[in-house]
Amino acid sequence: MTARIYYAEPSCRTFDAVVVRALDYEGRPGVILDRTAFYPTSGGQPYDTGRLGAARVLETLDLDGDVVHLVSAPPAEGERVRGAVDWMRRFDHMQQHTGQHLLSAAFDRLCGNRTVSFHMGAEASTIDLEREASSGDIEAAVDAANAIVWENRPVSIRFVSSAEASRLPLRKEPARDGVLRLIEIADFDLSACGGTHVASTGAIGLIGVLGAERFRNASRLSFVCGRRALQALRLHREVVASSVRVLSVLPQELPAAIEHLQTEAKQLRRTIARQQEALAVHEAARLIAGASDTAAGRVIVERLEGWDAAGLKAIASAIASEPGSAVVLLSASSPPAVVVARSPSVPVDAASVLKELLAQFGGRGGGKPDLAQGGGLIGDAAEILAAARNLIAR
Question: Does CATH place domain 3-85 in 2.40.30.130?
């Protein structure tokens, strides 16, 4: 089994090792070393990358007790190599993982709200709590966790047996038996964990919760630590500055300004909808007046400028309200929207016509025999209209 340097020395950046075995893993070259500082994906923490001699380490896996390094080009078995961990990536993971221990311990201590799962993403991490947390609980936990960060308390590693662990005040029950690796944040948290952590809490820098959502009758929190917190602050600063510039308000006035805009937009949409309905009646009358009667009745197949799907539906419905009418309307947008409708007395299945159009030109949609609509059609508008005319008039 691979000796794991990161268990005792998580800050190890470079090391020497011997290639024990070269292998193929799902079509990708990999090697197993006698010892490694590369961390494989485990416990919610992603894998390390870096270099192994002249080769790049692209991914690190834990397979049956061995650490497999997937590489750009494998060194030979028996070769002695120098490994170098991508330190920026590793240190970021150390900040996030140690920050998670602090945040979870704070929720446990202050609210009796345990963490049931943890996931470290590329930009933010999440913890799922046992039950829903109020905004007050969240702020209190974040304040308590950051207080420990700024006290720069030591973070230590020790190994104990299951029997010894049973007598210790662990934050959560260990997931396995045997020798356990414990991560201790002085006088605040003690947890069994195989991940990599900073040597003292000050190295976390800052813990910030970006948001919370209800998840399975509990809470899922998204958070960032260290450099990620700085990046999040920069992003929020840019967003706020841009919004302030566009809306010509002070930062503290943004919520009220956005609410005012939303109210205005809702009122405008209602006004437009009413006007569109009125215009639809006039547009339907114009189309009916210009239509010619055929053996199949009054057939209208047109491409209309300046109308969206809702407008086309209103026009088509108004036309279909006139006895003996069948209509296909296509929007001028790209890709176009399409509406098919017919009067009750006309033996045309609007849903079937639409289905055949979608089969020829792609897109999606559906409806009933008297009214169907879709969108996303791909093709020349004239060809779509010609196909629609043939389908509706046959």
Answer: yes
Crossing angle of the two packed helices 350-361 and 381-393, in degrees rounded to 10? 150
CA gap 137, 2 in Å, rounded: 43
Residue 390 CB contacts under 8 Å (≥ 6 apart), including other chains: none
- CB of 376 closer than 8 Å to CB of 335: yes
Per-residue pLDDT tens over the stretch 198-230:
999 999 999 999 999 998 889 999 999 999 999
CATH architecture of 91-238: 2-Layer Sandwich (3.30)
- How many Å apart are CA 124 and CA 118, to the nearest integer? 11
Instruction: Calculate Rg over the CA atoms of the chain.
Output: 32
Helix (H) or strand (E) holding 299: strand 297-304
Angle, vertex CA 253, rays to CA 248 and CA 256, nearest 5? 105
pLDDT tens for each residue of 39-83:
999 888 999 999 999 999 999 999 988 999 999 998 999 999 999
The pTM of this model reads 0.73
Q: Which CATH number fits domain 275-393: 3.40.50.10490, 3.10.310.40, 2.40.160.20, 3.40.50.300?
A: 3.10.310.40
